[in-house]
Amino acid sequence: MKTVCRKPASIPKGRWAAYAVAGAATALGGSNCAEAAIHYSGLLDVRFPPSKDRSKTLQLGDPDRALLLFHDYRNQYGTGEAKLVLYTFGCQLSVRGFSIGSSDGYVSKLSFGQNISSGLFGIYCNADNGFLAVGDQIGYWTDPGIGYIGFRINKGGSFQYGWMRVRMTGRPQNGFALLDYAYGDAGERVRAGQRSSNEGVPPDEGSLGWLALGAAGLLAWRKSRSRSARLEDA
Fold it and tell me: How far from each other are the two terminal CA atoms of the chain, in whole angstroms?
């Protein structure tokens, strides 16, 4: 029995070009919309020296939502304290970490890329403060280096997540620098260090993804289809 091979339908070059242009425009338009969902501070590099008291308030897109970072270089124990205080009205503001007693808590030290929404938000706006590091032993931030603070805003059951990037000088005085921060709109998933919604998302490897990349992507897609056809015929 003779096998009938059908020739694939031919698409004019002009139509391929139109598809590529339309795909690229759609991709760029979607990217611009998505980037507005996460709000990035830009590089700040606000320094809290080991031998000096200093504080810095961060507004979170609303005058009623604020985070206060401060450094007390001579506490009652003679060692340095790095602290985070929460201020909020009309919503609940909390931080990844663990509360102890009625006021004190210890802020978790997150790594780049960690999902902010997963984990315990144990330090709330009705607490006095959360410690990053105290002296030689207490807290997750006593070693030098960079870490991320994760926070959450809850207003009427609608959650917003964000992060702060902090670089510590180390024990015992625990000076630090606030490098930058970002927060997302309600319902937006945010990872530590993420500055826009589409950051780190790889392009679609399917045909629409190649078309969205324009003429170069279109050529690569057609070559991949040609190789697949040769393998099937072999």
Answer: 20
Which tens digit of pLDDT belongs to each residue from 68-104?
888 988 776 778 899 888 777 667 888 999 887 666 7
Give CA separation, 31 vs 12, 24, 36, 130, in Å.
29, 11, 9, 36
- Report the C-alpha gap between 16 and 18 in whole angstroms: 5
Phi and psi torsions of 224, nearest 5°: -65, -35
Q: How far apart are CA 179 and CA 42, in angstroms?
A: 9
Instruction: Give the Cα separation of 182 and 60 in Å (integer).
Output: 9
Q: Which helix (H) or strand (E) holds 13?
A: helix 13-35
pLDDT digits (tens, 9 = 90+) for 144-192: 999 999 999 887 888 999 999 999 999 999 999 999 999 999 889 899 9
